[in-house]
Amino acid sequence: MSQSLTVACLAGDGVGPELMAEASRVLAEVARLHALRIEDVHLPYGGEALTRFGHPLPHSTREEYGSADAIFVSAPDDPAFEGVKADLDLSCHVARVHNQARGDLLVVEPAGFGTDELAIARGFQLAAQRRARLTSVASTPEWPALVAAEADGWDGLEVEHLSLGGLLKRFSDHPGTVDLVVAGSHLAGAIVDVAAHLAGSLHTVASGWLPQHGPGLFAAQVVEEDEVAGHGVADPAGTFLAASLLLGEGLGQRSAARTLERAVGFAEETAPRDTRAFTDAVIAMLPDARVDTEYFEEVWR
User: Fold this and answer.
1) pLDDT-derived band of residue 2, with 50, 70 and 90 as boundaries?
2) What secondary structure letter does DSSP report for 131?
3) Does the model's pTM come out above 0.90?
4) Measured between alpha carbons, how far is 92 from 121 in angstroms, rounded to an integer?
5) CA distance 73 to 59
6) Beta-ladder partners of 70
7) C-alpha dihedral (265, 270, 271, 273), degrees to nearest 10
């Protein structure tokens, strides 16, 4: 029997609970399809926890998400989100921009001061698991030397160095030819914004904060305003893409991650955009989107 994997789910209030409810349905179906045992543990967080317990991050919540395999947040705009990040031993931030037409893009940046080398090393690890191509955009005079030192340990991995302007020109002139970018924090945000613009929406961006030790943290780049809560019209696509990133980089289940990402892409082409109907369409498309492990590298595109 496969090992049970625990995901700490932090929904908060506003639109968060309905997005988390639909994401839990999707994760359960992906787990069933790939014979995984995923236990989602729903914990008090943010405004909801403040109302119930008088604190946005109760001690019991912090204890439970600290021992989980990954942390999934459907309300990343809650101020408590920064408290969760502060509890974790983070090395880098990964943003994945989903673009059905051009292929997805991963952007890796340091998580904070002193984590440049850790972020670069994680970028090489991720590139090796994908298409063995890495693009570096220098953020400091020391950055190219750090990338070159890491590249010495990765035979067969193609590394290119571009300026920010050169990268943006590549996006325009040769779409789909950049797969993974490592860049400093003050450049990564601009790169993600441009890639999301080309994909058509910030709802195509999923974020992960990856640790040296302990659980990673995953959320959509943006979620709907709380004003739409309860009306059944919140767009869950970004939250589902964050769940896909969680599966791949938080739990190491990359075949399941790609299955979910492909199903979201299929649903975006045909499904209604109200919350439940879109979720039902993603679940219905999961079997056709399935990617078996032995073929994973061949279909990653």
Assistant:
1) low
2) T
3) yes
4) 10
5) 17
6) 7, 216
7) 80
Using DSSP, state whether 230 is helix, strand or coil: coil
Q: Which residue has the tokens 């904070």?
A: 112
**What contacts 10, CB < 8 A, 6 or more positions away?**
16, 43, 45, 46, 61, 65, 71, 72, 73, 74, 75, 80, 84
Pick from 270, 298, 295: which is nearest to 285 by CA? 270
Rounded alpha-carbon distances, angstroms, from residue 243 to 160, 207, 237, 246: 30, 10, 10, 5
* Strands 216-220 and 205-213, bridge-based pairing: antiparallel
Does 89-213 carry CATH code 3.40.718.10?
yes
What would the pLDDT profile of 235-275 be if each residue is shown by its tens digit? 999 999 999 999 999 999 999 999 999 999 999 888 677 89
Which is it for the CA torsion 296, 161, 149, 85, positive or negative?
negative
Q: Categorize the per-residue pLDDT at 295 as very low, low, confident or very high, splitting at 50, 70 and 90.
A: very low
pLDDT in tens, 193-209: 999 998 888 888 999 99
Domain with CATH 3.40.718.10 in the chain: 89-213
Residue in 119, 112, 128 with CA at minimum distance from that of residue 94? 119
CA 191/CA 181 separation, integer angstroms: 9
- The values of phi and psi at residue 102, to 5°, are -100, -10
